[in-house]
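Reviewer comment 2.1 asked that we show a complete input and output for one of the modelled complexes. We chose the zinc ion case, as it is the one discussed in the main text.
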Amino acid sequence: MVDVQSFCDNENKLIVKECAVVAVGFPYIQHWIVKSPHDFHDLITSKRKAASWVKTSHLGIGWNEGGVEYRQFVKELEVACSKARKIYVKGATKADFISRLIDTEVIELTDHCAPPLSQLMQDSNASLMRCLRHSDNAEYVCALNVADKLRYWVTSNSHLFTS
Ligand SMILES: [Zn+2]
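Response of the prediction step:
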């Protein structure tokens, strides 16, 4: 299971900021906060506004934050996913992003009747992981939290993925 939280650049391209991989059926995880390819001030005004909204109202992480270089992230993502037979991702844009990076088959969960995340978040009382960066503010979305939630949903609905 992979989740990506992202920004949008001047060309409307997805710019990954936070990514989490959680193994389905095994207690393994990997998590990154990724450097952006250029400075915040290279964004046009409308994209700066959008990026500021993502920081203050959605993700709580700024455009210029992040420790790992994009290329290093891609290498490590490949390693993290190398043993997976399938990669589950929710959302067409995210699934497209991941399938361009990784050779493994990507299963987009909305195509398999996964309910909206807001509903998933309310449905279960399973305790969910968050990354340490997001540990002190539960209002922000966390890729690790989303991936863990979706892992729980996939595990509980394995009959939908029998092929
Ligand atoms: Zn997080």
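The beta strands are 2-8, 14-22, 29-33, 86-89, 105-108. We note this here for comparison with the apo prediction described in Section 3.2.
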